[in-house]
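Minutes, project huddle
Topic: does the predicted pose make sense with KG4 bound?
PN asked that the exact inputs be recorded in the minutes so nobody has to dig through chat later. Recorded below.
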Amino acid sequence: MNNKKEINTLLAIDTSCDETSVALTYKTKVLSNIVSSQIKVHKQWGGTVPLLAKREHEKRIDFVIHQAVKQAKINAKRFNLHLKKLLTRTDLSFIDAVAVTYGPGLSIALEVGISKAKQIAKDFNKPLIAVNHMQGHFYSSLAQRLTDQNHTFINKLLPGLGLLFSGGHSEFVLSKRVGEFEIIGSTLDDALGEAFDKIARMLNLGYPGGPIIEELAKTKKGSFKLPVAMQNSGDFNLSFSGLKTAVLYLIRDLKGENRVQPREKRPSYRDGMKPKTNKRNRELDRETIESISSSFQKSAFLSVSLKLEKILQKYPNIKTVFLGGGVISNMAFRKEIRKTTTKVNPNIKIMTPYSKKLFTDNAAMIGVTAFILSKHNKALILKTEKQIKGLERIPNLSVQN
Ligand code: KG4
Ligand code: ZN
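Predicted holo structure (tokens), as shared on screen:
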């Protein structure tokens, strides 16, 4: 293995949750980004089942790798990239390294990607770059289309503030230098995506809840008053569990659930009958569901933007806001973030991933992150057989590591 070789072309793998994803990246350009979604498998359980996720990753990983390489070759040819060598090789020896997510995520799901990455590194004698999934979301907006001619100098964008909102995380992350991250605020309970999913479940709308609720919220202005948590907490933390409970009570109230019938109508114990609770005596109509969805979004997004405003005021040297994570694909959320940021300082640049696929879990962001960090000598690059073998998953890895 040539230790001095530049790392530009990467095969990246992410199996941190319920998407099996493999990408080929060249510097910050995305040659291919295949995401094989397991939503159909987990849907019936109303959330991700780790054992099923692991099995599905195992079933799909080889095929997804094959698809990623095939698509990369097609794209390289189509855009006539200087990657012609890629077209002439039939194996993976054209890559400079393998990148893989080693945390955070579901333990047994992460393991599938890590084992596969180790095997490829060994088979083709390539270095293995271990990537932090949340750092991946942070840099996801730096991923570029093959046709993009601009060159982004990451150093010029810092200090930057990452707004990372996904199914497992909701955090404000400050980055003063490439590869250095500090969580300055985060949720104390549920992640925002998790709240979307739980509320969708309460309303029997399906899984994942985010896109469904976003769609419903578009049609109606929220008319229900819901709490905006932690407004005066004096820090940059968030909380969504109170809002979730408020929505639960609102739904129950509107349905008339669990309300004991008026006294005079109650059957008598003496008659040997139990008092009935008037359960599910009313289904919610679409208009009400739209209004609940919109009211929920409004409160949730307001609680984020209030903290964002305070952060930008406290750190006036922030040049860029980096957006990443599944919830960021919500247009109303992005609009709110844009409005707040511009209000505080219209010169702050807002970086958003170029496609929806890059918001939710994907491997392209892992390849791009591995490239950026390795260029700045901040990547965790494993070169010897012993180092590669020793890589272990870290399910609760923090973005700060
Ligand atoms: O980043 P991601 O794909 O996975 C994690 O790393 O967790 O985020 C998934 C989460 C889910 O909770 C999903 O409901 C939420 O992102 N989500 C959305 C939208 N699309 C996905 N939340 C709100 N609005 C959306 N359009
Ligand atoms: Zn994620």
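Observations noted during the meeting:
- The CA atoms of residues 140 and 385 lie 30 Å apart.
- Residues 133, 137, 166, 325, 361 surround zinc ion (ligand 2) (CB under 6 Å).
No decisions taken; revisit at the next huddle.
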